[in-house]
Write a structure and sequence with these properties.
mainly alpha
């Protein structure tokens, strides 16, 4: 294993653990990340719903990209 591959693997692990911890901090009633970190007092519910939807879509995009990166190694060809 090359040094860069080890560094990237460790970075991938650290980011994954951080994402898990961020999800666990959130309350099950909702409120998103703003409510989890003490904000959200006096906010517009429609605006919150739009932000939550955007955050969810961005999270799905990042998760898909990371899953793709974890499954397909650089320099290899996918099975045909």
């Amino acid at each position: 294993m090359s040094t860069i591959q080890i560094i990237l693997t460790l970075l991938f692990f650290v980011v994954s653990v951080a994402l898990v911890l961020i999800v666990l901090v959130q309350r099950p009633q909702g409120g998103g990340l703003t409510g989890a970190f003490g904000g959200g007092a006096g906010t517009d519910e429609r605006k919150d719903a739009d932000e939550d939807r955007l955050l969810r879509l961005e999270g799905e995009a990042v998760a898909g990209r990371d899953l793709h990166a974890a499954m397909i190694r650089p320099g290899t060809r996918p099975p045909v």
